[in-house]
């Protein structure tokens, strides 16, 4: 039986081959050849129009005004890696640019008010992709703040309200953390690294390795890549055309104007509250993600400011 099966399978293969050969040969006018060429055309088109090229690594780079030692071969290679990874992950980089157009105008003035260099905004980019992310360690929001850290810097966190999701308040808390780290290390680069590894973790490695500069430290994979990811995204997002990204201003996401409603009482039902302003609950939550439930207990009668989008930006408002 096994021999018979093998014979039958072999015969089947021969039949398929014969049919394939006949199909190609039967049109002497070249129709079959044209068909074969047509089937190959997409592959040829991709090969002609899509190139994966080595990228020139900038010779002069800085982070928050602090020089990057690009003459160090290790620094050069690590920078090259992050430029390649972030340039050729095109969909992600383009989404980051679209979101940055919407959220950087919120983040930038707060960093300026707090006396934090503008480059530190890229921490929010690599921490969360400018989304209200939640990590496996339960770090939350644009700035990926842990509950303890958030409370240390004055954020309210409970079942009803979690201000780590409030972009303005979380940005201010992150800025205060970074200023404190800068005071400790004397460097914005080390302060940024400590945002990933913790201030104690960076301090321990500086002491252990007897150096005082981030670029001289041997660190784990994540923190070792951290500053280079910041530098790469800063470079790409500031020079998109140089790295092959083509878009118009209209392609970028735009901030939606809002006004604030003062609330210092209990809110029993946010869907009903939203409907008073001609919007639905989903739209209310998009602009106020720090409201974590469909009601607000507010036993202390604390004052909150809830954002409402201006008319004309959502269908429900028309």
Q: Could you explain the architecture of this structure?
A:
The protein has 318 residues and is mostly helical. It has two domains: 62-251, Lysozyme, CATH 1.10.530; 258-317. The chain contains twelve helices and four strands, in the order H-H-E-E-H-H-H-H-H-H-H-H-E-H-H-E. The strands form two sheets. It has a two-stranded antiparallel ribbon. Strands 3-4 form a two-stranded antiparallel sheet. Helix 3 (73-88) packs across helix 10 (221-238). Mean pLDDT is 88; it is low at 1-40. Residues 106-213 form the Transglycosylase SLT domain.
Task: Name a few traits of the molecule.
2 domains; Lysozyme; 318 residues; 4 strands; disordered N terminus; mainly alpha; two-stranded antiparallel sheet
User: Strand order, biggest sheet?
Assistant: 1-2
At CATH level 3, the topology of the largest domain is: Lysozyme
* N-C termini distance: 76 Å
Low-confidence stretches: 1-40
The fraction of residues assigned to DSSP E strands is 5-15%
The residue-averaged pLDDT reads 88
Q: Which SSEs are present, and which pair or pack?
A:
Blueprint: H1 2-25, H2 31-49, E1 62-63, E2 66-67, H3 73-88, H4 90-114, H5 122-128, H6 147-152, H7 167-185, H8 188-197, H9 199-209, H10 221-238, E3 258-263, H11 270-275, H12 281-287, E4 304-309
Antiparallel strand pairs: 1-2, 3-4
Helix pairs in contact: 3-10, 4-7, 5-10, 7-8, 8-9, 8-10
Signal peptide: 1-23
InterPro entries: Lysozyme-like_dom_sf (IPR023346), Transglycosylase_SLT_dom_1 (IPR008258)
Protein name: Murein transglycosylase
């Amino acid at each position: 039986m096994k021999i018979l099966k093998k014979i039958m399978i072999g015969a089947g293969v021969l039949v398929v081959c014969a049919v394939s050969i006949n199909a190609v040969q039967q049109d002497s006018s070249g129709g079959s050849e044209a068909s074969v060429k047509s089937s190959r055309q997409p592959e040829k088109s991709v090969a002609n129009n899509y190139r994966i090229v080595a990228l020139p690594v900038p010779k002069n780079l800085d982070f928050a005004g602090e020089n990057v030692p690009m003459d160090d071969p290790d620094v050069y290679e690590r920078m090259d890696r992050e430029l390649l990874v972030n340039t050729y992950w095109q969909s992600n980089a383009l989404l980051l640019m679209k979101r940055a157009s919407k959220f950087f105008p919120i983040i930038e003035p707060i960093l300026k008010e707090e006396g934090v260099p503008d480059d530190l905004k890229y921490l929010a980019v690599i921490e969360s992709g400018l989304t209200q992310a939640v990590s496996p360690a339960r770090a939350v929001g644009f700035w990926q703040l842990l509950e303890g850290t958030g409370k240390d810097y004055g954020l309210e966190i409970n079942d009803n309200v979690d201000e780590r999701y409030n972009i303005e308040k979380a940005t201010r808390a992150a800025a205060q953390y970074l200023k404190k780290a800068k005071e400790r290390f004397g460097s914005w680069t080390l302060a940024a690294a400590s945002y990933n590894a913790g201030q104690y973790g960076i301090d321990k490695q500086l002491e252990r390795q007897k150096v005082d500069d981030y670029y001289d430290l041997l660190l784990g994979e994540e923190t070792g890549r951290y500053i280079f990811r910041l530098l790469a995204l800063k470079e790409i997002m500031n020079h998109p055309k140089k790295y092959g990204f083509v878009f118009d201003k209209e392609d970028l996401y735009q901030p939606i104007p809002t006004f604030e409603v003062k609330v210092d009482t209990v809110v029993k039902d946010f869907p009903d509250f939203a409907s008073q302003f001609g919007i639905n609950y989903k739209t209310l939550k998009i602009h106020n993600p720090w409201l974590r439930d469909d009601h607000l207990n507010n036993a202390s009668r604390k004052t909150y400011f809830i954002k409402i989008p201006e008319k004309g930006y959502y269908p429900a408002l028309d």
